[in-house]
Amino acid sequence: MPKVLPRDLADLQGVVDEAARVEGLNGFRTIYEVLDFDEMNMVAAFGGFPVRYPHWKWGMEYERLSKTYEYGLSKIYEMVINNDPCYAYLLESNSFVDQKLVMCHVAGHSDFFKNNYAFQYTNRRMIDEMANHATRVRRYADWYGVDEVENFIDKVLCLENLIDRHAPYIVRTRKDRDTDEGERAAKVDSVRRMPTDKEYMERYVNPDQYMESERERVQKEEKKQKTFPAEPARDVLQFLVGYAPLKRWQRDILEILRDEFYYFAPQAMTKIMNEGWASYWHAHLMTKKLMLPSELLDFADRHSGVVAQTGKSLNPYKLGVELFRDIEERWNRGCFGPEWEHCSNMAEKQAWDKKLGQGRQKIFDVRKHYSDVTFIDEFFTLDFCKRNGFFTYGFDKKKQDFVIESREFKEVKKKLLASLTNSGSPVICVTDGNFENRAELLLEHRHDGVDLDFAYARDTLRNLQYIWTRPVHLLTHFEERQVMLSFDGEALKERPVGRQV
Amino acid sequence: MGLRIHTDHHRFRAIVRGRIKQNLKDYIKSGDLISKQGEKKLTIPIPRVELPHFRFSDRAQGGVGQGPGQAGESVSGQPQQGSQGQGQGQGQGKGKAGADASEHGVDVEVSLNELADMMGEELKLPRIEKRGSKRLSSRSLKYSGVHTSGPEALRHFKRSFKNALRRQIASGNYDPNNPVVVPVREDMRYRSFKVVEKPQSNAVIIYMMDVSGSMGEEQKEIVRIESFWIDTWLRRHYDGIESRYIIHDAMAKEVDRHTFFHTRESGGTMISSAYRLCAEVIRQDYPRDEWNIYPFHFSDGDNWSVDDTRTCVGILREGILPIVNQFSYGQVESPYGSGQFIKDLREHLHGHPAVSLSEIKDKDGIYASIKDFLGRGR
């Protein structure tokens, strides 16, 4: 596919990249490729990559994109992938001003990929890696059959959100917890011995019989505590890679897919910021530097399309760009810190201007150190919420419809954060890989007030069982009760556990 | 360039059509896209296969929106669909599923050719052996090569000048500062063509239907459905296909498609009239060397008299069977018809290779009947 970038676009890229550099953006070198709509749909269906492992889901996405394009419902202007060098695609039929806008947008993304902390551990050679994955999967398909391999991939895809999104940034299991055997024995011995400095008293203060029984008790307890896994495993896929009885090719495919899930995870974790940042920069670069007067209307049209709000749903582009602008303005005027927080005089607050001019510096810091959750947590203020008219909605059983519930700042923020936490997926971990001492698998859903979709949960459990081969269980809550969902390969069982919560 | 995605796409279509991977059948959702075109609402079916995940129940979860409205007011549209008309971001289409998955059956959009193929596979229909395809051919010219001689009108500028340039560089006559290239006689190249003979096959379907009083709406419906499938199948196999329609009661006449399916005559039945007209049509318009001919006749099996039946057999033997690929007779069961005609045909034409007879009891019988008609690959 190596088409040479047409001369005019190559020149344009030079101009845009230079303008971005002067503004302080520091992205990867970007390679643009011009695609026609069909190629664009294909690449988009592949998640931005030119080659992916064979699977029908790409075909499904391709069909959706082709149809929506065909009927004029949507059009992909641009795509950019996190790689070094950064690859970005331009739609051949775009007008010149579109391409300019897209390049500005891409400059923002590229900078974000390179500098945001969430992306620091992603594979920057993913474009090659993906191609390797494709080759491996294809080879397995040749050896073991297309259906066999695809079916297995289907099963794994059902579990794609059972990864530990924060694993790259923190150490969850501490090595020093498991001390070696001798040390533990010493601990047992030392424990519970009454202190006495008179040797002859020893037999009376710590009678042998008592010491023996105590030692046994402690040992028993230790054994009980020695669970497998030692700590709940949030990276369920990793656990399966390690312990599920898989064939070699299956294990390899599981690892391949897990790799890819981890590669995409930061993008889901920073959707609002990433899009907001890119939108901020395309608007800034275009309006302040690059736009010709004659391009104004086209630019305004495209830009408003990007940040448009359909119905009352939340548009991450819009939320992101507005939040960045809000931050910039606040730090320019000095609207932060204890002095600002404690000021209750509205008039004073409105006229507040310490002329600090730290806005630009601040948003660059923010784009480096935050992800969506922390971004919203820190910068989504009461003032911002009121100004932009946010609300929470929920399902009204009487009306059988989703209705507006509240405009309370606290409620809005809570819900918004909840929807972003763990990228909107429930937190589920493996708590016991040898449940009932029968090599069964126990998963626990950390219930935080929102129930699982049970129809989905049942089917997912079936697929998990296929991989684990022994019975699997999921402990969760349903309508205020603790429920154990089990599948043993033949029948699904649901039974209430313990007391009412 | 052939897109790599086509294999995946093909596979997805096969899943949606239920041909492979039955285990995914439960996850197929229709997910229509609705767009407006002028006044009309257009529904574009976009099937999806949604693999299950552990996820929150939409209803229990709720979410955050933006915009005006009082508490208690409905949030129009789906929550969090995030359909930003433009800008796809960097892949990872993590849009949440719409909450309004309709529970009706899933309409799957298929093209007629696909439909024909599906039918073919389902009924295990053989591919049709075309007749006359070798005898009839159309000629066309294909510009496929380059020669050193030819008419000036066909000279190949680019090649000629390339040759000239090559020669000049080789002989040292080329000056990059003054890049003048002058082709001489030997440099000239001309396009040359080949005559390609393209085999061609044409087919005509002649539908005949009894529209006498005894053929009710239900019978016609059966004929309509059956002829649709026959049409689809034959069109899959022939590029140029023509259809002719003949209706008859005691008299036969040729009509257009609409009339064919919608008239209701009354009165007696003389099947021979239709066969006579059919033979006439073939004789006039469709020489057997050039055409694949498929007459189909549908009736409820009532004929005027034994004499007329004898005439029919005569016409078939003499005028129709020798020149057609296959003559098909479908007898639709009707409360008024005696159903005698098929028995007579069976008696007189038993074992004739070009005759295909089928009795159609009701709508469910259509399936078997199509197999009777088309199962022989003629």
Detailed description of the structure:
Chain A has 501 residues and is of the alpha+beta class. Chain A is built from 21 helices and ten strands. Chain A folds into four domains: 7-116 and 270-301, no CATH class; 127-172 and 234-268, no CATH class; 307-421, no CATH class; 426-500, no CATH class. In chain A, the strands form three sheets. Chain A has a five-stranded mixed β-sheet with strand order 6-7-8-9-10, with helices on one face. In chain A, β4 (390-396) and β5 form a beta hairpin. The N and C termini of chain A lie far apart (59 Å). With 378 residues, chain B is an alpha/beta fold. Chain B has ten helices and 13 strands. In chain B, α8 (306-320) links the parallel β11 and β12 (327-332). Chain B is flat. At the A-B interface, α2, α3, β2, α6 and α11 of A face α1, β4, α2 and β5 of B.
What would a concise description of this structure say?
Chain A is 53% helix and 13% strand. Chain A is built from 21 helices and ten strands.
Set out the fold topology.
The complex is a heterodimer of chains A (501) and B (378).
Chain A: H1 7-22, E1 30-35, H2 37-45, H3 56-70, E2 78-81, E3 86-91, H4 96-115, H5 126-144, H6 146-157, H7 181-190, H8 202-205, H9 208-225, H10 236-243, H11 248-269, H12 271-290, H13 296-306, H14 316-333, H15 337-342, H16 346-350, H17 359-369, H18 372-379, H19 382-388, E4 390-396, E5 401-406, H20 409-420, E6 428-435, E7 440-445, H21 454-468, E8 472-478, E9 481-487, E10 492-500
Parallel strand pairs in A: 1-3, 7-8
Antiparallel strand pairs in A: 2-3, 4-5, 6-7, 8-9, 9-10
Helix pairs in contact in A: 1-4, 1-12, 2-3, 4-12, 5-6, 5-11, 6-11, 10-11, 12-14, 14-17, 18-20
Chain B: H1 5-16, E1 28-29, E2 33-37, E3 40-44, E4 48-49, H2 58-61, E5 63-66, H3 112-123, E6 137-147, H4 157-171, E7 190-199, E8 202-210, H5 217-237, E9 240-248, E10 252-255, H6 257-262, H7 271-285, E11 291-299, H8 306-320, E12 327-332, H9 341-349, E13 355-360, H10 366-374
Parallel strand pairs in B: 8-9, 8-11, 11-12, 12-13
Antiparallel strand pairs in B: 1-4, 2-3, 6-7, 9-10
Helix pairs in contact in B: 3-5, 5-10, 7-8
